[in-house]
Amino acid sequence: MPPPEDPLWQVRLEGDDAILVFGGDWRHATDLVPAMQAAAIRRAIANPRRLRFEAQALVAWDSLLVATLWRLRGLLQADGTMLDEDGLPPSARRLLALAASTTELPEPRRPRPNLFAVIGTICLSALASVGAGTMLAGDIVRGLFSSVLPRSRRTRMQGADLLDAVQRAGPSALPIVGVVNFLLGAILAFIGAVQLRRFAAEIFVSNLVGLALVRELAAVMTAIVLAGRTGGANAARLATMQGNEEIDALRVLGISEQTYLVLPMTLSLMLTMPLLYLYACLIGIAGGALVATTMLDLSPLAFATAVAHAVPLGQFVFGLVKSIAFAALIGLVSCQIGLNAGRSAAAVGEAATRAVVAGIVGVIALDALFAVVANIFGF
Questions:
Q1: Where are the transmembrane segments (predicted)?
Q2: Nearest to residue 253, comparing CAs of 138, 149, 152?
Q3: Any bridge partners for residue 51, and if so which?
Q4: The whole model's pTM is what?
Q5: What residue ranges define each of the domains in the chain, with the CATH number in brackets?
Q6: Is the sign of the CA dihedral 265, 221, 324, 359 positive or negative?
Q7: Which SS3 state, helix, strand or coil, does residue 170 take?
Q8: What distances in angstroms separate CA 32 from CA 28, 29, 64, 219, one per listed residue?
Q9: Tens digits of residue pLDDT in 5-44
């Protein structure tokens, strides 16, 4: 037999009952494993009708004893053995009852997704976003009118802020807009040349490049570049100001954030986007001309003459209108997301990502709407 200070147990049979006698020191300092002890006790008591306990010989115990009893209870209840825990220390019985009440909770039933509820939620979110954007647009228009009225200078849009926003949205975007549209024009010319060469209609490459860029791709690609570049930056800037409580400070001073912050950002996009669109058209046509002159032996003068005859002035006007609409959409969406961002560092990155995604999707959706309207009016 082990010395009295070591943990020990003994099984005594009385008829159909088994009595488990605990003694010694049942604490974790003895390096016993509860699962192994419970399995050994289960093998020793065979299959009794009821198991009782005696703990008068216990010297000390802690959670090691409770863990062993808990695992033994699970083994015996699976076999239908009844447990009489009256012989255990009262505190051990309370711990076992607490463990049973916290570990055997039923799993919550997950509600089945309702397709109509999901669609309704998406529609309501979209309507709420449209409503918030409309209200922001109204505030911007009101701020634009208030900026030209003789009011306090601090509550109006500052010219320096507008010039800074124009610099960030316009000249700084010229390299990336030029590279994207130059490559786009070159790709269009290459694909058109490969296909039109089969029908000896290489000269119509100029029509393809000119119409595709002027009517659709130059405005759309420039807007996508600005949505990823300027829209995300505006949203991140406003979200940072929101986190630093700078916008709250403006409101305390009686300065409208729509007039002081959002109006310069949106107006700068609307002023620079048409110029960037014309620049993108020119660079894209130059890229197409480079491919056409190298692959199809067309002179640059012949290519430019064919583009001038293929693309009427109305197509440029249509593209300019679309570019202004794209700019207003990017400005409103990015500023709204930035103003509604959280006040943490993670919210800044999330606002920038949401602004880029929403701006790109919005530009493509608005372009599809322009295409439908133009088709209805036969343009």
A1: 115-137, 173-194, 275-296, 316-339, 351-377
A2: 152
A3: 18, 83
A4: 0.62
A5: 8-102 (3.30.750.24), 155-376 (no CATH)
A6: negative
A7: coil
A8: 7, 8, 8, 75
A9: 566 777 877 777 788 788 777 776 556 677 777 777 777 7
